[in-house]
Design the sequence.
């Protein structure tokens, strides 16, 4: 491998009277850079027509912390190495994304940050005209710039630093400064790359940097490149107890200090500044890892530094040597997990878990190769850095912490040890991909970041990592690493495109792999290989009697990949075969069966074996991302992994159905204590899941059973799923068969459900509220329309329509419909205005449990809530006196509390309610108290009318009140299924009972129920 410093050249700072470091001689720099580039291009075997531009920067910038502002002067020499004459240059002004009404924030009128270009001058000092379109500056050149020539420019600019965000910003005295100066757009063989900066990442020209950063004297600066005057660092910078509160000093030090950095052969420059940084340095080979840490985080960081060093060494071993002398790792205050810049990574300072912190650092360090040295266009082909980085992050995680359980925290609480599950990095990536692929929202990996309509991160991170693991297992570690190292060696310090990656891998491995790249990157095809049929019989051949096996394989989805076949014979021997893709192998061996062309859905193989077959497995080593491995085997019952308490179904095995058993204990007046078992399981979320509940009453001896099953309907779309539900539980029995359909549009999506439901009361001792005897059979239709919130939309709306019509087999001929609108407007960080409008009507002869009630939900809706289902689970007088109701109906709690006539239920409903969420003052006053700081508070007004054909000014029930909502429940309550507790405190009611004051404090409680998962 080449020496990591062969391309380095010495540079010296020259002190000048001006604040800007100017180029000593542009012609000399151009000649030297040109000769170096020739060496790089020759050694890297560039394709015909390849070129890349070169920029030399000398930047002087001053940070004004009190003003959160930068002032800078940028001197640059732009070298035109293209075969074209340029008449215009373009520059990125990334911070202009935060201007009011920018392309990224079209509905925001608030200015959060910007770059303002004050002037652009040529080498003679003449001002040049330019125009700005949001994040792109257009500079017409005073004279055309021919091939081989260079252009000298001086740019004066200021920057308003945005608040801390995903990639840069300020928070108090801390500054993370990235993408902060005017930077030329890339011009390559495909032309200018002048995408507006929305939310994607970056693409910039290679260059050399000489940067002076002036800050107040207490500040410590970490930056891209080498610090040329380390004497400016405070003497206390390595002292763990270092704490300097710059803003709180009675007489702040107004003097400044200038840090001088040199960075060679990089394509960006970033820095961080903080008066409290503590510096730790570790030498790894020829590279110094520099850690700039917050004093209060030293304990956490010290616990993972050795792992970070091992991760860095692992990346060098697998990819290639890191060619720079230093890498700075900063404990920053960005909101993303981390962000990469050349020679510098910023890590989210709020990450608490040591292992998560170490893995995040490894991910960002991997970016020093994929993006830092292999400088792809991150906006257009984000997978070329994020996908490879995620792959090496997972591989390094397995190297450091083992293949299984490598995401589990080192220290676990008691309930985590009992009820946790094994978290594994690779399996998590596979599950993210599979659930995304089955969601119906998948988009090709190789999509421009700004053009993704849904989640851009799973395809570019997880799916690409899954693809690389698949390729690694298909071609073997040795060939895969040969491809990676060759790609790195040939394309470092340059701008690779996908086709360059493809060609490099083909040549390095000696295989034709375009079939893999094209399918995986540019389609959303899924992989589902099925063993359709396997039959065999004894036949007589020249060599004697043999068992002829005929296998029929089928691609149920269009993605085509090589398939391994394992056959176990009844004599105990095994046979292994491979079904290749046509043309991908440079040579074959005796275990290869005839190729299976991607255009053919079916494949027939005939084998002659010495004994009958016991078992056939497709893809026995799970090399392939098959969405349904259960049809890969001649055994039709899929394997099952069963756990006690451990919730492994959250991250299920990719080859088995995973289920967990939980004990349960409840109580009601009829059964006494109810003991039983619950089971929860699934394969991959959208495909299969079940919920099973068994119970036995200790007093009554009555058994109970409830079973739910759901999966996608096998009709070629992931938008339709079916539900099966059957139960005989606490005095009621019934079942449901339903189909649901979801649209995948954003920000508005729809869900439709059509089903048949049967319910029967067989023991009237159980219901806590009125319940009619007999059987109810209905056809149900439900529609939900949801508009989600975005960065620009503060209004969220949700429509719910439920229509129920009597079906054959029931005792009650009736029709019921209800329409509910739930708007929400965000007024502030913790302040929302929420509304509810409801209207409904019943015709025919309905059972009492389906009537509308002014105080809350109908009894039939309460059956799914274990706390409201049966008499005695909660105090009987709470239910009788109206102090316990679930949300729904008219939501006027006082109607039941005061025994209003309307509390008996009605056939029509018209209701309105408005809630104003308030910030909880106790969160700051009593932050360490239990419960109180996590309460959510609101004031509300509610009105309901059960006969909306006769509305008058005084009709209906109305109330004003306060609500306290608590969903941060302790674990024992969540294990019982309690998801939230809501206390409603009406203090005024329009129709009080005789002798009661309208202005009287009342109370009502509701408990949310979600079976523990």
Sequence:
């Amino acid at each position: 491998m080449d020496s990591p410093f062969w391309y380095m050249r010495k540079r010296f700072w020259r002190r000048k009277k001006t604040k800007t470091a100017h180029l000593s001689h542009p012609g000399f720099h151009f000649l030297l850079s040109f000769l170096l580039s020739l060496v790089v291009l020759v050694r890297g075997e560039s394709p015909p027509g390849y070129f890349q531009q070169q920029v030399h920067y000398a930047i002087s910038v001053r940070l004004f912390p009190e003003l959160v502002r930068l002032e800078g002067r940028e001197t640059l020499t732009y070298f035109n190495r293209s075969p074209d004459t340029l008449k215009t240059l373009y520059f990125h002004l990334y911070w202009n994304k935060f201007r009011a009404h920018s392309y990224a924030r079209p509905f925001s009128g608030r200015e959060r940050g910007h770059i303002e270009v004050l002037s652009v001058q040529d080498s003679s000092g003449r001002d040049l005209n330019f125009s700005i379109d949001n994040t792109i500056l257009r500079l017409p050149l005073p004279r055309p710039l021919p091939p081989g020539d260079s252009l000298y420019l001086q740019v004066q600019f200021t920057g308003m630093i945005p608040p801390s965000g995903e990639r840069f910003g300020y928070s108090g005295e801390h500054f993370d400064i990235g993408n902060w100066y005017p930077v030329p757009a890339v011009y390559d063989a495909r032309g200018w790359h002048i995408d507006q900066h929305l939310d994607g990442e970056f693409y910039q020209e290679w260059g050399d940097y000489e940067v002076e950063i002036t800050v107040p004297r207490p500040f410590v600066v970490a930056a891209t490149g080498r610090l040329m005057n380390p004497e400016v660092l405070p003497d206390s910078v390595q002292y763990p107890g270092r704490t300097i509160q710059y803003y709180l000093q009675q007489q702040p030090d107004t003097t400044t200090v200038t840090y001088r950095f040199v960075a060679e052969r990089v394509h960006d420059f970033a820095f961080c500044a903080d008066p409290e940084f503590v510096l730790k340095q570790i030498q790894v080979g020829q590279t110094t890892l520099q850690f700039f840490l917050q004093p209060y985080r030293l304990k956490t960081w010290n616990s993972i530094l050795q792992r970070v060093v091992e991760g860095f060494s692992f990346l060098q071993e697998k990819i290639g040597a890191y060619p720079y002398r230093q890498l700075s790792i900063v404990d920053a205050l960005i909101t993303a997990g981390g962000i990469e810049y050349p020679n510098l990574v910023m890590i989210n300072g709020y990450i608490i878990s040591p292992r998560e912190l170490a893995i995040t650092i490894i991910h960002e360090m991997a970016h020093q190769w994929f993006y830092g040295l292999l400088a792809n266009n991150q906006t257009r082909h984000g997978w070329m850095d994020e996908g490879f980085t995620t792959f090496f992050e997972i591989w390094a995680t397995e190297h450091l912490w083992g293949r299984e359980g490598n995401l589990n925290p080192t220290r676990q609480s008691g309930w985590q040890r009992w009820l946790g599950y094994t978290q594994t990095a690779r399996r998590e990536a596979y599950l993210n991909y599979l659930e995304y692929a089955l969601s119906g929202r998948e988009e090709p990996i190789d999509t421009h970041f700004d053009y993704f309509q849904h989640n851009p991160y799973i395809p570019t991170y997880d799916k690409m990592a899954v693809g690389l693991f698949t390729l690694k297992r298909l071609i073997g570690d040795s060939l895969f690493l040969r491809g990676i190292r060759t790609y790195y060696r040939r394309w470092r310090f340059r701008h690779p495109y996908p086709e360059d990656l493809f060609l490099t891998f083909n040549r390095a491995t000696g295989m034709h792999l375009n079939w893999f790249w094209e399918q995986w990157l540019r389609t959303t095809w899924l992989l589902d290989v099925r063993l359709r049929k396997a039959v065999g019989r004894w036949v007589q051949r020249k060599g004697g009697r043999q068992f002829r096996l005929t296998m029929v394989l089928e691609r149920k989805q269009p993605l085509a990949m090589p398939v391994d076949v394992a056959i176990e014979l009844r004599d105990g021997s095994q046979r292994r075969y491979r079904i290749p893709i046509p043309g991908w192998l440079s040579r074959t061996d005796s275990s290869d069966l005839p190729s299976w062309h991607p255009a053919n859905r079916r494949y027939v193989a005939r084998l002659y074996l010495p004994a009958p077959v016991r078992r056939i497995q497709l893809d026995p080593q799970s090399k392939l991302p098959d969405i349904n491995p259960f049809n890969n085997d001649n055994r039709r019952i899929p394997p099952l992994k069963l756990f006690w308490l451990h919730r492994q179904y959250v991250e299920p095995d990719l080859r088995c159905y995973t289920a967990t058993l939980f004990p349960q204990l409840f109580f009601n007046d009829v059964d006494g204590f109810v003991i039983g078992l619950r089971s929860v399981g699934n394969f991959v979320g959208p495909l299969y899941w079940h919920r099973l509940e068994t119970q036995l009453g200790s007093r009554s001896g009555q058994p109970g059973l409830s079973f739910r099953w759901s999966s996608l309907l096998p009709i070629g779309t992931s938008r339709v799923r079916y539900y099966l539900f059957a139960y005989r539980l606490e005095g009621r029995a019934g079942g449901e068969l339903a189909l649901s359909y979801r649209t995948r549009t954003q920000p508005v999506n729809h869900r439709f459900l059509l089903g048949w439901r049967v319910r029967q009361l067989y023991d009237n001792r159980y219901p806590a509220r009125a319940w009619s005897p007999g059987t109810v059979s209905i056809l149900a239709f439900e529609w939900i329309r949801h508009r989600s919130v975005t960065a620009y939309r503060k209004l969220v709306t949700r429509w719910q329509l439920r229509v129920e019509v009597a079906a054959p087999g029931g005792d009650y001929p009736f029709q019921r419909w209800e329409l509910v609108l739930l708007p929400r407007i965000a007024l502030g960080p913790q302040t929302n205005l929420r509304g509810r409008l409801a209207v409904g009507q019943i015709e025919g002869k309905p059972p009492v449990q389906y009537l509308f009630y002014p105080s809350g939900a109908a009894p039939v809706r309460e059956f799914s809530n274990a706390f409201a289902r049966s008499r005695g689970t909660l105090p009987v007088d709470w239910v009788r006196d109206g102090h316990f109701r679930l949300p729904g109906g008219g939501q006027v709690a006082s109607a039941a509390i005061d025994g209003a006539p309307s509390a008996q239920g009605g056939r029509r409903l018209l209701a309105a309610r408005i809630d104003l969420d308030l910030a909880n003052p106790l969160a700051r006053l009593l932050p360490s108290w239990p419960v109180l700081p996590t309460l959510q508070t609101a004031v509300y007004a509610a009105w309901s009318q059960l006969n909306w054909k006769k509305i008058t000014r005084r009709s209906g029930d109305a109330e004003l009140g306060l609500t306290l909502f608590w969903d941060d429940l302790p674990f024992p309550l969540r294990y019982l299924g309690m998801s939230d507790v809501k206390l409603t405190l009406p203090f005024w009611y329009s129709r009080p009972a005789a002798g009661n004051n309208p202005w009287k404090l009342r109370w009502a409680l509701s408990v949310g129920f979600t079976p523990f998962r």
Summary: Residues 529-631 form a domain with the Immunoglobulin-like fold (CATH 2.60.40). The mean pLDDT is 90. The first strand starts at residue 54 and ends at 64. The CA atoms of residues 923 and 933 lie 4 Å apart.
